[in-house]
Amino acid sequence: MRDEVTLTLGDRIASGWTDIRISRGIERLPSDFQIAMTELYPGEDPVVVAEPGMPCVVKIGGVPVITGYVDRYIPSFNRSGHGIVATGRSKCQDLVDCSAEWPNGQISGASAAEIAGKLAAAYGIGVRCDVQGLRTIPQFNILLGETAFEIIDRISKYSALLAYDNEKGELVLSRVGTKMHASGFFEGLNVEAATAEFSADQCFQTYKCYLTSINVLGGDNDTSGNLIETVKDAGVKRNRKRYIIAEAVPDFVNLARQRAIWEMNRRNGRSRVARVVVDSWFDSAGELWAPNRLAPVYLPSLKISDGDGPLFWIIAEVSYLRGQRGTQAEILLMAPEAFEVAPMPLNYGFLDGATVQGYGGTGR
Question: Residue 263: in which H helix or E strand, if any?
Fold first, then answer.
């Protein structure tokens, strides 16, 4: 069966799971799972051994979706029978949980992908990056006690990269995806339930960047030389302003301008969110729904559409579910601009804002 879930533990394969949740996302690291059964599968020993810490692979239809470790194993019984619950996360859990290992504690002259690769190698984790021409990270020191992912998160944002994991347990450094699923989510066709969320509380009409938080130049803030840039959002009809103060880094002017554009685009992207429940884990081509993939979304009764056609949004998170309601996929979608990475310096004193990659655009 293409939707059969198995848990591989060494040379043993456990199947027959009746309650399943497997979750992956581009803002969820590591991926995780919780699977359970109320009866042991035929022919197995009454005690199924899945020791916490054991390497494991969760597969759907023989295709890996999570490669990692068992975190918890919970056997139980009562008058009506017995059950098993296993939870776990991908291999990238060690980057999130564990302290960074780096000789001499100093990083210098490497790209984000190269640094992430060295940090991940200490825990036996591979790194994949599909972005070319990454900037060289200048020298900075690692603080004792920092986790590997705290450093990876910092250098990824500096290089405008998303950081998440794949089905092999590898760390993925990428940008907003452009690959399209073969099908999507259409009201009246494959969507069993849907919720739309429209918000305005995080959007602003005007974004202004200032040199300093205190006007030391005299006169009005907007005419005294303190104002760097103004970006307007025509979609916000009433007066709502957000002031952004430039950071004390080289080429702060460019960084502040990019930050204003990013603030507007990201907030707009997150002002419309769709959550759908569909009746299959697969698209029409037989591929599992996957994070950071585009898919058409057409929910006209919820005002999620582009006129008479669909919107093309990014899958932010997917959970493969099975239980009393049958087999379902629960999927979170937003516009691609919702996942632009904030332009930011690595550390004070280390920024060439004129060459920050991955940003651009103008106000609406």
Answer: helix 252-269
Map residue 290 onto helix, strand or coil.
coil
Angstrom distance (rounded) from CA 300 to CA 305 = 6
Please give the class, per CATH, of domain 5-89. mainly beta
Phi and psi dihedrals of 185, rounded to 5? -130, 110
**40 three-class SS:** coil
Q: What is the CATH number of domain 185-199+270-339?
A: 2.30.300.10
DSSP 109: S
The overall longest dimension of the chain from CA atoms, in Å, is 84
**Token pair 């916490």 in the structure block, residue:** 52
Q: Which residues are bridge partners to 148 per DSSP?
A: none
Domains of the chain, residue spans = 5-89, 94-174, 185-199+270-339, 206-269
What single DSSP character describes residue 130?
A: -
Per cent of the chain over pLDDT 70 is: 87
pLDDT in tens, 38-89: 765 444 544 456 889 999 999 999 999 999 999 999 988 887 778 889 999 9
